[in-house]
Amino acid sequence: MDIKEIKAVLDLCKKQDVAEFELETKDFKIKLKRGNEPSGSVNYQESVSAPAPIAAAATPVAAPVPADTGAEIKSPMIGTFYRAPSPESVNYIEVGQKVDPETVVCLIEAMKVMNEIKAEVSGVITEVLVENAKPVEFDQPMFRIQPL
Amino acid sequence: MFEKVLIANRGEIAVRVIRACKELNIRTVAVYSKADASSMHVQMADQAVCIGPAPSSDSYLRIDRILSAAEITDVDAIHPGYGFLSENAHFADICESCNIRFIGPSSGAMNAMEDKALSRMLATKAGVPIPPGSEGLVEDETVAKETAKKIGYPVMIKATAGGGGRGMRVAHNDVSLIKGYHAARSEAEKAFGNSGVYIEKFIENPRHIEFQILGDGRGKIIHLGERDCSIQRRHQKLIEETPSPFFEKRPGLRKKMGKAAVKIAELAKYTNAGTVEFIVDDKGNFYFLEVNKRIQVEHPITEEVTGIDLVKYQILIAMGEQIRESQSDFLAPKKYAIECRINAEDPFGDFRPSPGKITMYYAPGGKDVRVDSHAYAGYTIPPHYDSLISKLIVTGKDRREAMDRMSRALGEYMIEGIKTTIPFQQAILQDPNFRRGVYSTNFVENLLGGARRELIEENA
């Protein structure tokens, strides 16, 4: 494999958003790792261009908040967001709390089924972005988290 | 009365349904994949819910996500558009069980024509001719060969769960039959999750003529006339027109086929909008093909000639309204309409899809010119879905005027930044055989294969 081929593979990795690539043949072995991804972010690389407003612009069900520093925990589904397992219980997590990948951060209810949502990353919660009992859509940011 | 409707679709049909809802004072909810965030239907709807990443299997086909979106927005009904979940009886069932009206036929009517093999049996029961073929699905090679021998070559192997012109193979002899049989089965399994195939006599160079039907669920089923959709490339329609030039000297045939369409719909207890497809040979023998249990892409030409808003009618019927018109209103068309499906494809590059950013966009206008499109200047066509970007529909007092108007309108249409099929459709509009109304489903292949390439290039 020459430098041109390696560059082509790297470009392909970048384009397809592959973080790690390993190839082993009879003659050689190569391992490539891209180092500039923030850990713990859910990667959807589609950059969404601002919609051209026509008459009344559509209101998204829950207004997305512009991304800041740190990473976000985004909703994997559509439903109603709850901060606690039940109305009488304490919230699953609060701002400033440390979480690990297995920590349940919230509940999303859809079709009468309660789904526990895990953090999937380690870090400290810096902001809660959705109000309790409000609807969330796919990929909507719910928490801002400072990864550890 | 519906207060809010969710449109479980995208692109131009989502825009179409939203428009009908707005005119009925119904609020609208759009669902969209991440790739469609800047799409027109999202802008037009009152509310929008993101339901997944780009792939359809992870978004527009996700019944659970669509129903969750319907739940959090508290809609009364869902309009499924065409394609996607529009003919999915399971989806229709789930909607109803969640107390959400499905705007389309009942799951019962869908199941009665659940697949093409069943539909053929229904047609036979209705006394409507079907192309000679297998009794139901063909289970193995031996049955395939026997069937082909019985009905005579050439034959067509078709996927029972197929649609949109996919899952079909033609065979002219035993060798190509066996090859095609296995290829069709595996293609069908992959595309539709159902490897069932049946075999039909392949009627060479037929015309494809379909009838729009409407049932109100209160016992009334009528047809609203025919559409000639013979101008196809690889079974994908490119140009449709109504009335069919083939009926000009055969008014009795229109009446006969219309009656047959309604009869099949009645047997299936069909409700809401649907289309009964036939193929017609050059002697005027017609055969039932299938029923499309949804609103179709080419519905606008029927709307322009009849004055009926079909999508509004779908919603009204779903709300319990009756059909007010009588069959006699639709037996003798008084106008002529033609539609060109404008796809983001390169007609000089073997119709390769051409997604990308539309840098300049100017749609034609003027008398009796209609554009159903979600495109706009600055819009980036995503690569994940079909290539249809616009439908250009013109109406005229006769066929000649409609054709001249279409040529004029196509000439005005400016779409830059991507390739479109416009030059190709312009060439078709100038073709002498097309202009004489003498064509069948092999028209496009002949045009492409023949010495007409310069005609296409002239129009680019």
Portion in beta strands of chain B: 25-35%
Radius of gyration of chain A: 20 Å
Count the beta strands of chain B.
22
Please describe the biggest sheet of chain A, giving its number of strands, its sense, and whether it closes into a barrel.
Answer: 4 strands, antiparallel
What is the class of the largest domain in chain B in the CATH system?
A: Alpha Beta
The CATH superfamily name of the largest domain in chain B is ATP-grasp fold, B domain
How many individual domains of chain B?
A: 3
CATH superfamily of the largest domain in chain A: RNA polymerase II/Efflux pump adaptor protein, barrel-sandwich hybrid domain
**Helical segment count of chain A:** 1
- List the uncertain runs of chain B: none
**CATH-defined architecture of the largest domain in chain B:** 2-Layer Sandwich
* Overall morphology of chain B: globular
- Report strand order across the widest sheet of chain A: 4-11-9-6
Number of strands of chain A: 11
Strand order of the largest sheet of chain B: 13-12-9-10-11-14-21-19
